[in-house]
């Protein structure tokens, strides 16, 4: 097709990526033999480009075919041989190149100044009407695994990106995550050989729910059903075998050459990667695989909607219990006291399960629709100065309450993986249709409480914050946690109003000032009472001197 085109110039170029090459330099220069031999027509120069996407290798040569050179602009030029005009790039079809995977051909049109193409209005209207008629705002109600919004991703990309393990389809094609695929394959092999369950049965079980599992992903999954089933079986069986080995409730001992247990860094990778929103696998997949690979007498439907977990029972090997046993190191408070609220919808993946457990004991008062009407509470330092008592709550999860001048807050553990956990929960609440922003509201309260390293130190002394970072980093973490997260419904309005009202009262502040200045230590208390005693004696002596001796008469 291209060879039949009359050419005055043929240029060759190499490309190392999808960026377009600058072709202006390939055009004939003023005064050159090519330019002199051309006509005075200002018709467009046309170049054909072939780009091969999705390859790390050097892309093939691109043929630049110049039909007619662009004449120099009559106005003064900055340098000899420069051109001024307009370039348009259009995708064109190339039937003979269909055998090349993902090959695209572009047409570069360099237009002379003042030259315009006529717009085919009817064709444009027809194209736009076809596009608009296919658009819809509807989202599958089962969608619960979302790509992280860019507005949140820009704050901390590492908090949303897996470091070693790809779980599910969203990061499956990442080259740097391929190194752990052999580990997952080895775990699948061990699971099959240990349980005696045929690989065919595992694949068949997941194949039956493939359509439902696909609906859990809000983003289009560019995998065929067979490919998605393969990913879900491999990743799901790896997770199940890993948490069983970790718990050792099935008397499993990891092999000496198992890198997950022999390399200390692997656990940190897993703590991080398994809580990422983009790195989730539907719970129904884990549930079916876990139940299929249990002991025959225990093969029954499992659920994460149970109201509590019996941590002390050796027979309690539910999927929920095993997952929480692995994550209890990164959960605040005592995970053995965590309970899922009765009647709460079943969690759809691991991250949602952790969120539901964290907020299960939240003392919320219902949403406040207008986010601009609730008053922010003062910082921890300001509250203590005003007479508010800060106290660690014994409730598990993320509980916060205020009563009679006492603000009780559940203990919060701040470590490296905490940022990833909190940020991904907030991202999940921001994306999910029916997920209440309770955790995001809690993050706002934490930002109000902590404004400086001094606030972190005060809360650490009260054992409210178990800080593994330095105070400056912890302060930055709290202050930037919910940035760019929109809170339509705030879930702690009454607490904010009560704290603010108490903070503005005078008597608590005076009482606190009195205690801090005169009753802070035993020596200060003794000095205060001594001063009061001397003051009383001085007053009595003065009073006696003024009145005189009543037994003596006048002289």
TrEMBL record:
Record carries keyword Membrane: yes
InterPro entries: DUF247_pln
Protein name per the record: Uncharacterized protein
Listed transmembrane segments: 523-546
Keywords: Membrane, Transmembrane, Transmembrane helix
A Pfam short name: DUF247
